[in-house]
Amino acid sequence: MKTFIRVAEVWLPDADHTVLTHGAAVAGPEAQGFCTSSQGMRFRLGEGLPGLAWQQGRPMLLKQLHGLPFLRAEAARAAGLSSAIALPVFLRGELTAVLVLFCGDDAQQAGAIEIWRNDPRVTTDMTLVEGVYSQGADALEAVSQDTYLPRGTGLPGLAWQQGHTVFMDDLASAPRFLRGASAHDAGIERGLALPWAARTQAEYVVTLLSSARTPVAQRVEGWVPGDAPGTLRRTFGFDEAQGPMGDATLPLGDGRSPVGKACLSGVPCVEALADGALVAVPVVSEGEVAEVVLLTL
User: Fold this and answer.
1) Residue 149 C-alpha from the chain's centroid
2) Of all helices (H) and strands (E), which one includes residue 111?
3) 251-290 core/surface letters (b: 16 or more CB in 10 A; e: else)
4) What is the average pLDDT across 195-210?
């Protein structure tokens, strides 16, 4: 099964915080060459997509991977990659990493990447900053551009209110997803919304929308610190083969697992599997890791 996310990269600041260096990456067979071409690259503040997200201090989306600020257009085209989002992670005000997620250009793919923002200087609502939408999702794009979401309303507004990731496995029937009809018409069924801490006055939510045929990931899980010291508790989980996943706990231990590493370090962790990959995404609130979202690609 092809997933909506095709490549995940982690870029790390050097000791002097002057450049970003390649930390790790995972990809399917068709994009291995792209990952190899990226390993020797370095990005200064404002340079390339990772450097731009670092400079702006907020999520940055590229709808098309050609021209500035993207510097690897040819390799991306050869790998069948069409769009990307860069997510800078700030722990206690310091950049720990920039996570970049790439999506493919498969004509059968149904989905969207969106960045929503509440700027209190402009409005009390959350509005769409920018988004990239698959073929056939023109109506969803149009309604999204005209949508104003109060806190707690809609998928982005719900994640904004709760301060935690929200996952919906059937958007058309979810009463709190206000764009269900247009999403259904575009073949989009799944929705993942992550509140994303930024170094700006505005608050951000990143949404990943996808179909069951090309889901965001084969498995999506949210983990938070457990009630018992040194444990993590699963707050939601959905497996494309098995459906909803129940509550679970796991020991934080010494941080050897991808979830544990991301929780303790505030650095996204990627790990290749025999038949896929894991991406552990730390979600920061008030300067500390509040949650880890685990994606199985």
Assistant:
1) 20
2) strand 111-118
3) ebeeeebbbbbbbbbbbbbbeeeeebbbbbbbbbeeeebb
4) 95
CA-to-CA dists, residue 15 to 27, 80, 137, 254, angstroms: 27, 34, 43, 23
Query: Residue 261 is which amino acid?
Result: K
Q: ∠ CA 246-277-51 to the nearest 5 degrees?
A: 110
Mapped onto helix, strand or coil, the DSSP state of residue 147 is coil
pLDDT tens readout for residues 258-294:
999 999 999 999 999 988 899 999 999 999 999 999 9
Q: Is the pTM of this model over 0.85?
A: yes
**10 Å Cβ neighbour count for 83?**
22
Q: Which two tokens stand for residue 224?
A: 């938070």
- Tell how strand 276-285 and strand 269-273 pair up: antiparallel
CA distance 98 to 90: 9
CA distances from residue 8 to 86, 90, 168 in whole angstroms, order as listed: 10, 18, 22
Q: How far is CA 23 from CA 10, 98, 221, in A?
A: 5, 10, 23
Q: What is the DSSP string of 244-256?
A: E----EEE-TTS-
* Residue length of the chain: 297
Instruction: Assign residue 230 a region (left: φ > 0; alpha: ψ between -120 and 50; beta: otherwise).
Output: left
Tell me the CA distances in angstroms from 3 to 26, 219, 220, 296, one per residue in order: 13, 10, 12, 9
Taking alpha carbons only, the member of 4, 11, 8 closest to residue 89 is 11
CB 84 within 8 A of CB 62: yes
